[in-house]
Design a protein that fits this description.
alpha/beta, 5-stranded antiparallel beta sheet, disordered C terminus
Length: 546
């Protein structure tokens, strides 16, 4: 599947690089990137579905390469180390923190900081240090390093797509790594004593690269580390002497506020800075809309979302390009109507169905709503069974409100006679046993009283319409006792079950009951234990009876 999905970018790049003549075509940076990505794919050394092309690839045994680098004398002497955010360098960042090194990460694009320092408490455990690298909130475990910090880096570690043994490096093509190194050199953070290192797989290393492909702004490397060897460049290549302002456009400065701030500082000091008049930079995210749909759509020839650089544009400037027609907007949109706060149920309890993901502006065009961030984690789940086809989710939510039981979400499986209540600490921390006991106490002797007959209740989904003679049936009220079972979830997912343990909590919990010893709370029958791959998230099942 992965090989088939990645054939399109290879064919597109080959068609762009090969001319109609029979003469051999000189290699370009783009063609060398595609050749390397193809070798990684054919050698099956890449990591991640569709995670090879058009990016710095993550590869197997990256932890071994990181371990080799930590044994080198340059690492042992270094105290301040800056690492890019490439996935292939994550193991090295962890080992650097465990070795009590000061680790610096690139700042966000909307920040005017030079970089971000990873701040961990002095008494932090190894697991807490690793956790500090996984956080998404930059306000946590991060501190901004400004332009006037006088930072001196001992080592800079970057990712690469292809690198030669004599020190030449080709990145993913957007030019931000070279620009970042030029900025650090401009401010004096990178000195001649600073070692520039790259961590790659063995298939990404070649003997030589065409020298004519590299410009004055391309950053070479001093040390190349693979899972099997450490390659030291015998003769250090010249580094950029700073930021080349004449190659930057005004738009690029707006994308990186730190460059705009540095430009203002230099102009105040009396330096004259001239930017590039014609904007020829091509960003990797021209289309701000999130990429969706089949993979073949992402890699069609001429797709503006393809990663390109200024160098690629100059090398392919003589080729005839055809302007692509604007992409059609979706013809079919989700027009499902949802009840608001003024009608229907007003419990405010989130139902496990998919939320409305489109909003409509005045022109009638739909645009995607951003996914809700900072959702509290779900720590445990309560399964309710013995549901009849007469029960509606609003009946359950009304009863939960009376009992002051507020789950984070409800996965409704009424047509199967069950549903799942998902709970977690809304403050972001893990739930305690006291929270679990409080939920179980509120669900003690849970029963629902419903009214049937009289033509008031609608037939269940998929059920036949009631006969006309039953339309005037007398109103009946009945009470249904529900069975309650508690499921506790582990803090981490087991390897290999990421695809089965996603957001669909109802399906996972349903499978979880097949391989966990469950105990009835309101008279439920205990389920037999068994093996089930879909239940890898389940750590244990509470056997306490309410």
């Amino acid at each position: 599947m992965e090989n088939q999905s990645n054939e399109a970018p290879v064919a597109a790049a080959a068609a762009a690089e090969v001319s109609s003549t029979t003469q051999p075509v000189e290699p370009t940076k783009r063609s060398l990137r595609v050749q390397t990505w193809k070798k990684i794919q054919e050698g099956k050394v890449g990591i991640g579905f569709n995670g090879i092309f058009n990016r710095i690839p993550a590869f197997v045994d990256a932890d071994k390469a990181a371990a080799l680098l930590t044994q080198e004398e340059e690492f042992k002497k270094a105290q301040h180390i800056k690492v890019t955010i490439d996935r292939a360098l994550h193991d090295f960042k962890e080992q650097s923190l465990l070795a009590n090194k000061s680790v610096y990460l690139p700042s966000t694009r909307d920040s005017s900081a030079l970089c971000l320092k990873v701040e961990v408490p002095a008494d932090a455990t190894d697991e807490q240090k690793k956790e500090s690298l996984r956080v998404q909130d930059i306000q946590k475990f991060r501190s901004e390093i400004g332009l006037d910090s006088k930072l001196k880096l001992d080592m800079v570690v970057i990712g690469s797509v292809v690198v030669s043994r004599d020190g030449y490096r080709i990145g993913r093509g957007n030019g931000f790594a070279d620009l970042d190194i030029g900025l650090l050199i401009e401010l004096g953070a990178i000195t001649p004593e600073t070692a520039i290192v790259t961590i790659v797989h063995d298939v990404q290393v070649v003997d030589t690269l065409p020298v004519n492909l590299f410009q004055k702004y391309d950053s070479p490397v001093d040390i190349i580390v693979t899972p099997t060897e450490v390659i030291r460049v015998s003769k250090r290549l010249p580094r950029p002497n700073g930021v080349f302002w004449e190659l930057l456009s005004e738009r690029r400065l707006k994308i990186l506020p730190v460059l705009q701030q540095l430009k203002e500082q230099l102009e105040k000091s009396g330096k004259t800075i001239t930017l590039k008049e014609e904007d020829t930079d091509v960003e990797q995210h021209q289309n701000s809309r999130r990429r969706r749909g089949p993979l073949r759509r992402r890699f069609q020839r001429g797709n503006p979302g393809r990663t390109t650089s200024q160098t690629d544009n100059e090398q392919q400037g003589q080729e005839n390009t055809q302007k692509r027609a604007p992409r059609r907007k979706g013809r079919f949109v989700n027009r499902r109507r949802r009840t608001n706060k003024s009608e229907g149920d007003q419990s405010g309890v989130e139902v496990g169905a998919k939320s409305e993901d489109r909003k409509f502006n005045e022109a009638g065009a739909g645009e995607r709503r951003p996914k809700r961030k900072n959702r509290p984690p779900r720590d445990f789940c309560v399964k309710l069974s013995n549901l009849t086809r007469d029960i509606r989710v609003k009946d359950l939510k009304t009863e939960l409100r009376k009992r002051e039981c507020n789950p984070l979400a409800i996965t409704w499986k009424g047509h199967f006679g069950k549903c799942f209540l998902h709970f977690g600490n809304r403050n972001g921390g893990p739930s305690t046993q006291e929270d679990v006991d409080k939920v179980l106490k509120s669900l003690n002797d849970l029963s629902l009283t419903i009214t049937t007959g009289g033509g008031e209740s609608a037939p269940a989904a998929g059920a036949e319409e009631p006969p006309a003679e039953n339309a005037n049936a007398p109103v009946q009220t009945k009470t249904i006792n529900l069975n309650v079972e508690l499921l506790k979830f582990g803090a981490k997912k087991n390897e290999g079950s990421a695809s089965n343990a996603g957001e669909e909590g109802g399906d996972n919990n349903a499978n979880a009951n097949a391989n966990a010893n469950s105990s009835p709370v309101n008279g439920a029958t205990a389920a037999a234990g068994g093996e089930a791959s879909g239940a890898s998230r389940v750590e244990s099942v509470d056997t306490t009876t309410v």
